[in-house]
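Input sequence (558 aa), recorded before submission:
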Amino acid sequence: MSELVHAASGLSGTVEAIPQEPSPPGRRRRWWVALIAFAFLAEMAVAMITTAVEQTPTIDEPVYVGTAVVYWQQHSLRYNPEHPPLGKLIIATGLAFADVHLDPAFTGDQTQLGRHVLYESGNDPGRLLLAARLPVILLTLLFGLVVFAFARELTGSAGGLVALALYAFSPDVIAHGSLATLDVPVAGFLLTSVWLLWRARHRPAGYLPLAGLALGAALATKMSALAAVPVLLLLAVLSVRRARRLDPKKAAWLAGPVAATVFVLVAVAVVWASYLAVDPGLRWATPADLPGVEGLREVADWLPFPQPYRDGMHVQFGFEDQVWSGFLLGTHYFGSRWYYLPAALLVKTPLGMLALGLAGAVVLLVVPRLRPAALYVLAPPAVLLAAAMTGERDLGVRYALFVPVFLAVAAAGVVSVRRRWARPAAAVLVASTAISSLWTFPYYLPYSNEAFGGPARTHLRLHDSNVDWGQDLGRLADRLGERHPGVRVWLVYKGSGVPSHYGIDAADPLAVPPEQVHGLLAVSDSAIAKADDRLAALIAGSTPIDDVGHSITIYRRS
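Predicted structure, token format:
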């Protein structure tokens, strides 16, 4: 690393310039760049679609799918207020083609709604889930173009390809980009906003409102994006100041406060529009059991957002006030640990991506020409990670999915170092990331890097959406039918799927005395990680004989 700092800090002239008008050889090179970029995105699309087809519902997906159906068919905001509507409206664009049936008289809660839509209304759960997941897959691929464009503007085509490769092969991005959830959309919208703020340094009038749109989309997808607002406001002001220095007359009307106001107003308007798109009448009744707030949390009630948004923040605060259990590096605990997310990211990020990302961050900080970009590329994920580390829910790196997304862009800085070893080293690290990612196909959720034993051993270090989010119920059914037909099955399953729908005839081993549990015992790895004394005793008296998707372990009990 010290050699990298020395090489990068040598002279700003060691950083290659981006050609403005490519010559005929340059045009041919541009076609090669486009072809390679397409290949990366095609690989990512195949990985995500394959994963989406093979996986059964994860824990959160039925709620989002059910809520999206209610948005589309009933124009009601009554379900899932803890998350704003935009992400579920995106999911609804796929469900619009699926001929979804929903009983208009249904009155259950949001968990019951998801089960009702997927399993109790005559719909095909697999078809519905794929329809819901495809819009998120498409959006994830489009965010890949943003990663490429941002990195290319900073470091040229080679840097753009490095960044895109890391993004396209990131197991966490593939895993969550193939699900009908909100984590990739909010990370991608935030990156898009930052990229547009970077471009606003030259054309503030054109790009500042677009950056506000992207920020508004992030805020209208997940409330966790609120933590990024102060740093993005600062970036908006800095971009306008830069533009005014370059062309005082052209940007004379855009003073810092005016720029910040325009940026915020556009973002707020997007949030309002997302609610009005669901229900133009904005009909909403504050729940009687809504958690109260006090202290700094009272600021939520003064935000310029619709009442259901502000009430949703109360729901989120209520979640944060609960005591959650976690599992990290083999230890089950209650409460939260401030270092959980950095440790989990260390386990679940490919080693090549970690090395390139950290080295690229050093280059951004050291090389004079790239130093202005460091604030744009590094500050937003740093602030978001710091905010996420204060949370009470140690449930997965999905709460920090913006880290690999921004890290991919930062990694592009390495190719700007004009040393013989720089680009070959970057190529080797990209290749190692690709090999590690391809090796885990199609089991991306339980991925961990080779330093921690790979996906087969992730359940010994982490739990929940890092490993076992209920995604392998269908694979369990196939495995039981292929290898263990006719054997008595006992099941401890952590997820939202319905085992009987997939042909699994299983009983609950915790509902009978241990001496009655004979045959096969299938246990979700998250349940193993948090096993109470009774389940632990059952497991201790059993012999592991099979593994399903690195998320469910099958034992034999004689």
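Checked by second reader. The chain has a mean pLDDT of 93.
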